[in-house]
Amino acid sequence: MNGVKKQNLPQKVCVSCGRTFTWRKKWQKVWAEVKYCSDKCKNHRGHSNS
């Protein structure tokens, strides 16, 4: 993703909270498997934040 502007990076929707999150370099090799925007959401999967 070198040379790509931040606004053009891939995005996904978190399956836990429903928020949109953007590609991060640390997810470069596992982007296809990323489902949660943070560790907090990963630990609270299936729970509603409302």
TrEMBL record:
<dbReference type="Pfam" id="PF10013">
    <property type="entry name" value="DUF2256"/>
</dbReference>
<dbReference type="InterPro" id="IPR017136">
    <property type="entry name" value="UCP037205"/>
</dbReference>
<protein>
    <submittedName>
        <fullName>DUF2256 domain-containing protein</fullName>
    </submittedName>
</protein>
